Amino acid sequence: MLLSAKDSVLLIVDAQEKLLPAIHQRDNVTSRMRWLAEIALQLDIPILITEQYPKGLGYTVSSLQEIIESARVIEKTHFSALQEDSFRDVLREYNKKQVVIMGMETHVCVLQTALDMKAEGYQVYLPSDCVGSRRPNDKDTAIARMRDNRVDIITSEMAAFEWLHKSGTDTFRHISRNWLK
């Protein structure tokens, strides 16, 4: 099934300062997360951000500061965001059936959140270029497990083009000016 901007919410899981230095290819991951989040903002797609125990792990990375200002940030202690009542309540407010999930670490909080969301009936999409783990094998294994559990594995560009739906619009022209970032 294709993504629809009107049916989607973007979820950034635990992209936190103290996790970032250990993440494999962190610059690529954070760059793609920022790029896709900026497109979501331009398309008025709601953005949720989780922070796993921020007192210990720090807050969301500063490169996403502009995104943070337009997002709803929810603190959590469970690895799966869906296990937090406060997150579940915020997600329900939007009444969206599609969740595009990205963040850190792929094999822990991203995986557990994605699988719980899938079990709850959400359509879950994972842009593989927007997730990171400390070790590549953990990321690869988590993506394979999510695929086996019917999470749609996509890329950031796939999400963007599906949200845009067609070229020739003012929105497409505006976004495509910065496409090759």
Task: Explain the overall architecture.
Strands 1, 2, 3, 4, 5, 6 and 7 form a 7-stranded parallel β-sheet that branches. The chain is globular. The two termini are 27 Å apart. Helix content is 43%, strand content 19%. The longest helix has 17 residues. The protein has 8 helices and 7 strands. It has 181 residues and is of the alpha/beta class. The protein has a single domain, classed as Rossmann fold.
Topology of this structure?
Elements: E1 8-13, H1 26-42, E2 47-52, H2 54-57, H3 65-68, E3 72-76, H4 85-94, E4 98-104, H5 106-119, E5 123-127, E6 131-132, H6 136-148, E7 152-154, H7 156-164, H8 170-176
Parallel strand pairs: 1-2, 1-4, 2-3, 4-5, 4-6, 5-7
Helix pairs in contact: 1-7, 5-6
Protein name: Hydrolase
Domain Isochorismatase-like: 8-157
GO molecular function: hydrolase activity
